[in-house]
Amino acid sequence: MHCPFCRHADSRVIDSRTSDDGLSIRRRRQCPECGGRFSTIETASLNVIKRSGVIEPFSREKVMSGARKACQGRPVTEADLAILAQSVEETVRQTGSSQIDANDIGLAILGPLRELDEVAYLRFASVYQAFDSLEDFESAIGELRADHDRPRRRPVE
């Protein structure tokens, strides 16, 4: 890390702390040349490969925006969307890959969105699973109905 004061090519880490959300590390550094102190913030990068081939950084806001469109007119709050976006990011990061296809992110949204709102799920699924006929919608609705008909397991006491 170059010193921002004298441009010396090295610095010494004095202190490291994890951020509140656990996604970044704040490091306090000191330059051995001029003695200047400065802070850096380090995060693990996650890039999205778009259909066009363009690579851009992952954005929770874009996940929320896509889900928000599917949830338009539904009883879903911004807090619900923020939790959904966090869940999607955690799922994507657990793959261990630093680059992921945009379509894979869309598919990762489906599970949490299905739990959040089934109508929004159907709207979103029609795009990301490329529904092209009424049969595709009927099949997805059939799966949702089958899940509702399955008996729920009760926790063991």
Automatic annotation (TrEMBL):
Alphabetic keyword roster: ATP-binding, DNA-binding, Metal-binding, Nucleotide-binding, Repressor, Transcription, Transcription regulation, Zinc, Zinc-finger
Domain ATP-cone stretches: 46-136
Q: Where are the zinc fingers (unnamed)?
A: 3-34
Q: Does the record carry Ion transport as a key word?
A: no
Family statement:
Belongs to the NrdR family.
- Matching PANTHER family: TRANSCRIPTIONAL REPRESSOR NRDR
An example GO BP is: negative regulation of DNA-templated transcription
Pfam families reported in the protein's UniProt record = ATP-cone (PF03477), Zn_ribbon_NrdR (PF22811)
Q: How the cofactor binds, per note?
A: Binds 1 zinc ion.
Q: What is this protein called?
A: Transcriptional repressor NrdR
Q: Which organism is it from?
A: Microbacterium limosum
Signal peptide feature range: none
For activity, the cofactor(s) needed are: Zn(2+)
Tell me the InterPro entries matching this sequence. Answer: ATP-cone_dom, NrdR-like_N, RNR_NrdR-like
Q: Domain of life, per the record? A: Bacteria
Please describe what this protein does: Negatively regulates transcription of bacterial ribonucleotide reductase nrd genes and operons by binding to NrdR-boxes.
Q: Which GO terms describe its molecular function?
A: ATP binding; DNA binding; zinc ion binding
